[in-house]
Specification:
The chain is mainly α. The chain has a domain at 3-21 and 42-126. The chain has 6 helices and no strands. The chain has helices spanning 3-21, 43-60, 67-78, 83-90, 94-115, 120-128. The radius of gyration is 22 Å and the shape is globular. The protein starts with a helix and ends in a 24-residue tail after the last helix.
Length: 152
């Protein structure tokens, strides 16, 4: 999968979770049943995903020569500004804005993939798995020594 597509998937999940966290959900018609089940993570997991998304993006875009791209990301992706308004607020031409937009998507798509934010389903499954108990061989003795595999 291309880095831009990875970014688009992660950004789509980020936007839907931000709306979920703000409490805005689509209107519900109780007379007609839902088309399908809409999974929602618990609030803490949704907040973790959003925080990780923003933290990874901030770290990747913190290069001094990418100051404009960082501003583009905050205005266009985080604040969800309309395209022409975002171009004006970023202070560059449309051509430069489009070029930066593609660079930001590539860089962040790679970073999201490396950090484990993609695919979002795996991100949530990984955190929902119960803690695995260590095998008996790795258990620590009461005196601080670790048990060995070989039987004495």
């Amino acid at each position: 999968m291309k880095p831009q597509e990875i970014f688009d998937v992660c950004h789509g999940r980020y936007r839907s979770l931000r709306e979920f966290l703000k409490g805005r959900l689509a209107a519900v018609n109780l007379d007609t049943p839902s088309d399908s089940y809409h999974w929602r993570p618990d609030r803490a997991r949704a907040e973790e995903f959003c925080a990780d998304y923003e933290m990874i993006a901030d770290r990747v875009l913190s290069r001094p020569d990418w100051k404009g791209r960082r501003k583009l990301f905050r205005v266009y992706f985080l604040r969800n500004c309309e395209y022409h308004r975002a171009v004006t607020l970023t202070g560059v031409s449309e051509g430069t804005f489009d070029y930066w937009l593609n660079e930001v998507k590539k860089a962040l798509g790679r970073a999201f993939d490396r950090a484990g934010l993609f695919p979002p389903g795996a991100y949530f499954r990984r955190r929902e798995i119960a803690e695995v108990t260590p095998p008996e061989e790795a258990l620590e003795h009461s005196d601080g020594r670790f048990a060995s595999r070989a039987a004495d």
